[in-house]
Amino acid sequence: xxxxxxxxxxxxxxxxxxxxxxxxxxxxxxxxxxxxxxxxxxxxxxxxxxxxxxxxxxxxxxxxxxxxxxxxxxxxxxxxxxxxxxxxxxxxxxxxxxxxxxxxxxxxxxxxxxxxxxxxxxxxxxxxxxxxxxxxxxxxxxxxxxxxxxxxxxxxxxxxxxxxxxxxxxxxxxxxxxxxxxxxxxxxxxxxxxxxxxxxxxxxxxxxxxxxxxxxxxxxxxxxxxxxxxxxxxxxxxxxxxxxxxxxxxxxxxxxxxxxxxxxxxxxxxxxxxxxxxxxxxxxxxxxxxxxxxxxxxxxxxxxxxxxxxxxx
Length: 313
Description:
Elements: E1 7-12, H1 16-31, E2 35-40, H2 47-50, E3 57-61, H3 64-71, E4 78-82, H4 95-98, E5 107-111, H5 114-119, E6 125-127, E7 146-151, H6 157-169, E8 175-178, H7 181-190, H8 194-200, H9 208-216, E9 218-222, H10 234-241, E10 245-249, E11 263-264, H11 267-279, H12 281-298, H13 301-311
Parallel strand pairs: 1-2, 1-3, 3-4, 4-5, 5-6, 7-8, 7-9, 9-10, 10-11
Helix pairs in contact: 1-13, 7-8
């Protein structure tokens, strides 16, 4: 007799970063033969109906799943993946109200930042770096239109001036910038070179498939990690899965890539590395292949969610 699949409830949050991260978690659970029901906080309005079923676990990003569990007195374990500081409004405006529940035996926390994980004493907290679905993030075999890509906010003076300087320093290269419309408007309002910022802007991406296409359409993606202490953000793993070159600002967890992923120490170092790798295809391909192989082995959705399933009792 065929074994019945366990049923899981996954909460797709309102935040864009959370939605992309949760999709890789959902994909991983399904790749591990789990029946996953998805409730979308942005579009669905039928939560009472969804909660009529019984679930083995409720899965959420930051506090989204835990909040639904506590508010509705659900009896199943909660699995909470955080890539925001747990003790901050970045993980939700209601973080202070729900953080104590992470102490309960049947609530499990998976934290993306190694150093922050060591600071916490919750009974069921586990370090787990980002991971992605390699069936979605992959080399699509297209010729990139852009030389450089950056996705994220230019919400601080440092980020904005850094990006402006990059565009001015490398006028011979095509640079793509992706962000939500309100962040585009804010950056243009504050920029000394609004026409250049607007020229780079390529729109807003809110789903995995379009993000994979955008990364494939660039030769190099660079990062300015905004949160955590030691961690690498989600874009890092998206990029290497697509077999494109990631150049990150320095983070301790670059050690995950065993010294193969390039990083920059300052603006001059970044521009030097960009031009060097664009000129040297052999070096470019070598780094891309090495980083891909490491991520494929250790940071894919199926493997990492299998670890989550084994951890949750």
